Amino acid sequence: MQTAAIKTANPAANGPETGSDNAVPGLVETLRSRRYRLAETIDFPVLLWSGTAKSRNFAANIYPYRASSHFLYFAGLPLENAAIRIEGEQLTLFMDDTTPDEALWHGPRPCRDAVAEQIGATAAYPLKDLADLAQGVATLGERDETVKMLERAMLQRGIVMPRHLHRSDQVLAKAIVQLRMIQDQGSLAAIRRAIAVTCWAHKTGMAATASALAHGGRESHIRAAMESVIMAEDMTCAYGSIVTVAGEILHNHHYHNLLQSGDLLLADVGAETADGWASDITRTWPVNGTFSSTQRDVYDIVLAAHDFCIEKAKPGVEYDAIHHIACQIMAAGLVDLGILVGDPEGLVAEDAHALFFPMGWAI
């Protein structure tokens, strides 16, 4: 999942605004710009793999395929069992054309040359030719078992684990990290699309809650309403959705609880675009539409931290500074409510606030 936080306008009342911005460069131009910026920091060829589909319980029953994020960043398309070689501004694609059997079961896909033209590749070859053209490349130490076997055979070197990279691989990893810390117009446009769809999904979930409560609905009904918005926009969920009345369980992936008046419903749901850019939004609302006085008091503390941190998030400000601000605001609010006792700054220093704010407490 590729994630980033960005402020964007709410989607229109009749659904998410997912149209592309006319100012956003095309795919070929965006990918060329990314290669150019990478070439400014390294002087050796790079090999990136897309990954392979994983079997669920037998070979033909696979999990939904998700290409490697770094491959998507430089190739732009969620190709399966493919690789790209980057050297300077040159991009070489390695992938096999669809066989008749594959086309029968899964449908045809664009041929290799058509894909190469779509992404601006300067050359394209079958995957088997990679062995002759990939010597001396840097890689990122693949976790995909199938890819590791291919890499071992084609590059004629031992399997490299991510934490034990060759020197050039380490330089590549650092270069890509630095490159991707600053988002270009292509990635910003994709993030905005994901956020717009996610905002609409949350609004749909809120609207569905009253009906679900009236008809004895469960958390699963709200999850279905929210994820249907994402599916309708031809996106996937960026992660397993959390839709729960037991928000104190951080990663609760059960959806069987009945909705009852007086409950708070927490929804942590995000959409992901086909090219891997995602949104990650969490919101909490009262099932019956009205906070109790205690719920409102605690909600207002969280909202105050949320709004103030957004205001303070500016270029050059480190994440841990923003996180510390949130800790201070919530500790002070909990002291005001009598839930914590003591000096807010001292309580944060002792991690007392982490009883109520465990996410990121060890930073």
Biggest sheet strand line-up: 2-5-6-7
Strand content: 5-15%
Going by CATH, what is the homologous superfamily of the largest domain? Creatinase/prolidase N-terminal domain
CATH architectural name of the largest domain: 3-Layer(aba) Sandwich
Number of helices: 12
Number of domains: 3
Mean pLDDT: 88
Low-confidence segments, ≥5 residues, pLDDT <50? Answer: 1-13, 158-164
Q: What is the total tally of β strands?
A: 13
Q: Give the helix/strand class.
A: alpha+beta
Assembly category:
single chain
Q: What distance lies between the first and last C-alpha atoms, to the nearest angstrom? A: 21 Å
Q: What's the helical proportion of residues?
A: 40-55%
Which geometry do the CA atoms define? globular
How can the largest sheet be summarized?
Answer: 4 strands, mixed
Succession of helices and strands: EHEEEHEEHHEHHHHHEEEEEEHHH
What is the name of the CATH class of the largest domain? Alpha Beta
Cα-atom radius of gyration? 24 Å
CATH fold node name of the largest domain = Creatine Amidinohydrolase, Chain A, domain 1
